[in-house]
Write a structure and sequence with these properties.
Blueprint (H helix, E strand, L loop, with lengths): L6 H28 L6 H8 L3 H7 L3 H24 L5 H18 L1 H13 L7 H22 L9 H22 L4 H14 L4 H16 L1
Length: 221
């Protein structure tokens, strides 16, 4: 039988969780600014204004702390996207808000872009980068969303939902890095351009018709 934590224990757990979160947020900025190799635990503890032993109470190693920082950032990203999804029932507005939230999150939190770059460079032997672990866990929700649009005849019946997810996912992923390296443009303007291409494509109607006919003929051959 499940028991309710005692008030003192619950308060202690909440305090511990807040302290851990504060450490992760502070360490994230330090790792991003100085780089993983330059951030030993002494330096991290000094910057966080805690004893090194206190850091080790929460994290067994620098690697564990670093990966916790990356995980925290990606958890926050997915949570914010999920929250905006629930603010509208219009499917196209839902897509628009999710894309805008994604781009805005990384524009406002560039430290997490730096951490993704460092994770890939330093921990190449990891089975799966943190970003893709979180992206894949969120895809089940989006897969159902897009499949429903296909089933309702809103999206093309020949559209492969997984291909759509991969394409849009790669588009925003690449855009995030481009923004980080070259500077952030107007997110609203960038979102508008991306949606125009995603929803309307690049071909006019006569060319689209010829393109579909050509593809159909090639498929039959």
């Amino acid at each position: 039988m499940k028991t309710t934590p005692k008030p003192d224990r619950q308060k202690s757990d909440e305090l511990r969780s807040r302290r851990k979160q504060k450490m992760v947020e502070g360490a994230s900025r330090l790792f991003a600014r100085l780089g993983y190799s330059q951030c030993d635990m002494d330096r991290i503890a000094s910057r966080l204004r805690v004893a090194k032993g206190t850091v080790y109470l929460y994290f067994a190693s620098k690697e564990e702390l670093f990966l916790a920082c990356v995980d925290w950032g990606m958890t926050q990203l997915q949570q914010k996207i999920k929250e905006v999804e629930e603010t509208t029932t219009d499917p196209f507005e839902r897509i628009a808000r999710a894309i805008r939230t994604y781009l805005t999150f990384f524009a406002e939190n560039p430290q997490y872009v730096e951490l993704l770059i460092q994770e890939r460079a330093i921990f190449k032997d990891r089975k799966r980068p943190t970003y893709f672990e979180h992206r894949d866990s969120a895809r089940a929700r989006w897969r159902g969303f897009y499949q429903d649009l296909v089933d309702r005849g809103i999206l093309r019946s020949d559209l492969n939902v997984d291909t759509l997810l991969e394409t849009i996912g790669n588009l925003v992923y690449g855009t995030m890095f481009t923004n980080h390296f070259l500077g952030n443009p107007s997110i609203d303007e960038q979102q508008s351009k991306m949606l125009d291409i995603i929803f309307r494509g690049i071909l006019n109607e006569p060319v689209q018709k010829r393109f579909r006919e050509t593809r159909s003929q090639r498929t039959k051959q």
